[in-house]
Predict the structure.
Amino acid sequence: MGSACENQIPTIDLSQSSGGDRDKVRGSPEWEKLCKKVKEACENYGCFEVVYHNISMQVRDEFFSLMKQFFMLPLETKRKNCNPKPYHSYAGLSPLAPIYEGFGIEDVSNFDSLKGFAEQLSWPLDDLDNLCKILSSMVKPLDELHRMIMMLIVDSYGLGEKMDSDSAIPSKTLLRMMKYRAPLPDENATGLFAHTDKPLCTLLYEDHVSALQLETKRGRWITFSPSSPSSYFFIVGDPLMAWSNGRLHAVKHRVIMKGDKDRYSIGAFRVPIEGSTIKPQQSLIDESHPQILKEFNYMDFFNFSATPEAMAMDSAKQVFAFAGIN
């Protein structure tokens, strides 16, 4: 699982455990080993590097080529990517992160969502099928990887008989496509300020311009550098931390740019469906692990976390407190 050294993010290869009937893999000695690795990584680091060969380099290259076309569109066109929900729309030219911009597609696994996104950007109708094919080719296996990791987490706590990966916290995928422009010599190099993720969990993939930094439990910032072109990055979000009664660690992270190259990355965020209530699992509450948070409505928490008041807070613990969840 990688070195136990604090500055070494654990690496877990999930390529051989995907595809086909996952239930045939569950319960095997190899599956139990993976459960242990994933649990330890999420508890101790709040994240891990995922080596996942099930997405071809051709699919990734086509996706990034298409994504770069989106960012070359006129600003007035990009701003048509609108959604009233926080973090679901185009964002850019913010004084807090002037070198960052990104698009959002809600429920990206849904064809109608892809079509709606294309229409927002006035994408040529004769290229719509190709756009949807390229996006789906990347997103579908990421959804499968998300489900696998959630199942490993569920099984690692002995909850597999009570739920599966989809019933643990019903969710859908928000896709964010992100660009971090290389900063000018006298410009703030912060691409994204330090934060914990408000969705359930996240899978990130970058174009190997390393700028993602993670804060260890001891308060040290380290830079994540993928060990393989097939490496993705899994991050525990605040709702998953709450679901596990604090067993899983929601890691704080940020993007600090260096050098003269632009950075492109994608984030597949699992967002609990509207109406979802996040509550700690009873079997994960005991004398050694008393309940740390009240159950809460996810969208109420999500909406509050995007307010200026919440964004100015130093920690997720403060956000939970001011939202009345602690």
Summary: The mean pLDDT is 90.
